[in-house]
Amino acid sequence: MKQATGRALLFDGVPGTLRLENREIPVPGPGEVLACVTASTICGSDLHTIKGRRQVAVPTILGHEIIGVIAEFGAGADRKDLEGNILKPGDRVTWAIVGNCGHCAPCVSDMPQKCAAGFKYGHELDREGARWAGGFAEWCLLAPGTAMVRLPESMPDELACPVSCATATVCAAMEAAGPPKGKRILVAGAGLLGLTACAMAATRGAGSVTCVEIDGHRRQRALEFGASQAMIPEPGFAGEFDIFLELSGSNAAWEWAFDRLALGGRAVLVGSVFPAPDTRISLERVVRRLIGIRGIHNYAPRHLLEAVRFLEACGNRFPFAGMVDGWHDLADHAMALRAATMPGAGRVGFRMA
Ligand SMILES: [Zn+2]
Ligand SMILES: [Zn+2]
Prior knowledge:
Helix content: 10-25%
Number of helices: 10
CATH topology of the largest domain: Quinone Oxidoreductase, Chain A, domain 1
CATH class of the largest domain: Alpha Beta
CATH architecture of the largest domain: Alpha-Beta Complex
Structural class: alpha/beta
Bound molecules: zinc ion
CATH superfamily of the largest domain: Medium-chain alcohol dehydrogenases, catalytic domain
Number of domains: 2
Distance between the termini: 10 Å
Number of strands: 17
């Protein structure tokens, strides 16, 4: 399986374009782990970057929803996964979007995703020491401090790929929102994060799960993922909600939902990961209604393990497997990008031969 060179897709900052390159397969250094990437899905944030809506250091290998097989451990590399399993070459794994040091100020304050020395897959400048840092490539070199989870053999790639982004992020958002049992949950957006949130809230005993989404096809999907109702955010709607999970990145959704937060309501904002105009907020309403607002960006390793367990237990109860519209070879990147940007598209991914 191992060759002298492997393929990687680079983004050079030219909107809409990726470039395929052959490069030497690395030997893992101290603490590093070499993984043979088996599949990687294209996240909405990858698309923002490729379209030029989000500035990143280039060139870079995008892709952070990655699964792979362990090829080789560098000297002294941590072989334990988050569940305590001792990993070995050949094990099928996924890993946290950020490798973290464990002792800087953000790390010790339960914000490992903001580690001062963090290594973020699919976001690193392609440079010496970070030449295989993203999922759109045949190999990935895991930095020391990257939390891994062994994947159940029965879990299809379609479920397993988004674990390290969408599913784990929703786990972090749900934790920030507090227990959903009996609560009226509002989810904005029915992309993969929103759908995952609907499914998670429904399986955890939410009183009701309402999804607001402007795309009719996506609204239909929300119902298949456990939403009790799916609607457009109508100005005249008079209901209220205990928990609001903002997964759309839309200011309009925020404003609509904020006005409908119940007494003691909690809003968790996740979707706004690209530049947008400021939005209005009544501070008096926050105070008098005892409203809590939290931002969640990425997640901590425990959420990755929780994400795998959630999909293992509940993944088959919802049509998660159907969320990946198609797999492409790295060489067919132009076709993959076209498919991923079609209206109503689900996840599109790269699967390595
Ligand atoms: Zn992502
Ligand atoms: Zn750190």
